[in-house]
């Protein structure tokens, strides 16, 4: 018997419905189904299939280290850990991590505390307030033009060309093989077959596939059926897999959706 918190059911149903819908649409395109009823659904499909990043666990200054270790993709986990060690990030790194934090749901006040506690370990509070805090407020749309930044996609992150001593980008694409292998061994416990599977995908330049495989090995309850499109989607998928990864819950959701 599987027990599931009722207050989190909406997240599980949404995720499971998206997966089922995407599978069926892919199948319909592949077999060439021509059903006139489908065309009536086309105007609402972008809404139904959109990725809304409903994160079931709120990320705060109190739990961010635990959430990062358990649910961050490798690109964001690396930036998070680098920041914790060095208490500073360069501009592109701050942009990649800062916008991620916004879309992963860290509250504005927690975000301000998070960055300030790190940066003021290597600089005065006055310098931080004068030179750095504006960027973090801007990322949340609170100052200046109040621009609403879109979450970085995997495609965009892979398009970066990090210079020497810059930490942003995609580890599966931008790291050398020895650095990536060492990090994967650290994160996955040295399972040779798992490491080989991921490294094979990297050699074939299937970087999203490698990241998806990394998620499934780090969190075995996660589904590998749908590719990951962004770090925020990775977090959502990882968290939800903890909540409804057991087969009994998935079977219940299948039964529920079949009756709708």
Automatic annotation (TrEMBL):
Keywords in alphabetical order: 4Fe-4S, DNA replication, Iron, Iron-sulfur, Metal-binding, Primosome
Domain of life: Eukaryota
UniProt-listed InterPro entries: DNA_primase_C (IPR058560), DNA_primase_lsu_euk/arc (IPR007238)
Cofactors that this protein relies on: [4Fe-4S] cluster
GO molecular function, one term: 4 iron, 4 sulfur cluster binding
Species: Acanthoscelides obtectus (Bean weevil)
An annotated GO cellular component: alpha DNA polymerase:primase complex
GO biological process terms, semicolon-separated: DNA replication initiation; DNA replication, synthesis of primer
Name by which UniProt lists this protein: DNA primase large subunit C-terminal domain-containing protein
Boundaries of every DNA primase large subunit C-terminal domain copy: 65-234
